[in-house]
Input
Amino acid sequence: MKAAVLHGTQEVVYEDIERTEPAAGEVVVKVHYTGVCGSDVPRVLQGRVHFFPLVLGHEFSGRIVAVGDGVSSDLVGRRVAGVPLQPCMECEDCLEGDYSLCGHYGFVGSRSQGSMAEYVTLPEKNVVFLGDDVPDLDGAFFEPASVAIHGIELAHFKEGATAAVVGCGTIGILCAQALSGYGASNVVATVRSAPKAAAARAAGVTKLADTLEEDWLDQVLALNDGRRFDYVFDTAGTPETILDSFELAANKARVMFIGTPSRDVAFTAKQWETINRKELTVGGSWMSYSKPWPGVEWDIVNRFFNQGIMRVVPEMLDTVYNLSDTSDAFERYAKRDVEGKILIDSWEEH
Output
């Protein structure tokens, strides 16, 4: 089969590799779309991988084309989204249902071969079935969507509350969409670029403020009747958005950090004191899993996409590349000129 294989730092090669046949309990998925995750970028540009050669890709959709022993042949032909985590199911965290915290896990596209290929083989329990009204392209967004839902679930969001979403990348937009499904009375998002603002508006996130503007805080509060927010979700993880999140939080608010930091963050004593004075509840969110496996997050994502609460619009996409052009996609990241999600299409040439 054809695959985009990472052989070394910034060395992505489109080549033939052997397709892994399914073992007992496994399925083979003919991959349609794979989303390039932010975590894939340092793997390619900086060589931050567990081994070479490696096929990247863990945000994907496709169709089951073969099954191993113990798996019903009725599943052949079913459209699916991939669930990339492969927890050990034996450690203390797994036994508690905290699969995201497993210390002995596998992961498609990181610790095993991924979906930037024509086919990917994985356990049957690592796929979820797409509804008839959910396109394959949207299915490739199930994994980042479940990350947003995991953060909302961990925050114990209450219907009727107000929420600020800090950052409007893919997960930020999906988080803002999902909050409407949770019954938020008001959702306001912050953004730092015009293309991301346009994508958010097209996706139905209409209350936006640009944090690069001097009066950004006044803009945000004006969109919430002059009040700070009951819940704040940081989906970007930058030093700026982390500090902004505490500023936006109301007294007794819950602040949930979903975005993964990539730079050090420094707090003044006064900034840290905000947590004390407001009596904030601060939490972190990692990946997207809970019991029963793979978790309520994936059930909610499936339901919200089927209901149209969560959806992908063209403005959220940067470019859809053919599998053969995967190296070109990562060259774009090296040049820092990507706005929106890049997808890899393994099915056909454009």
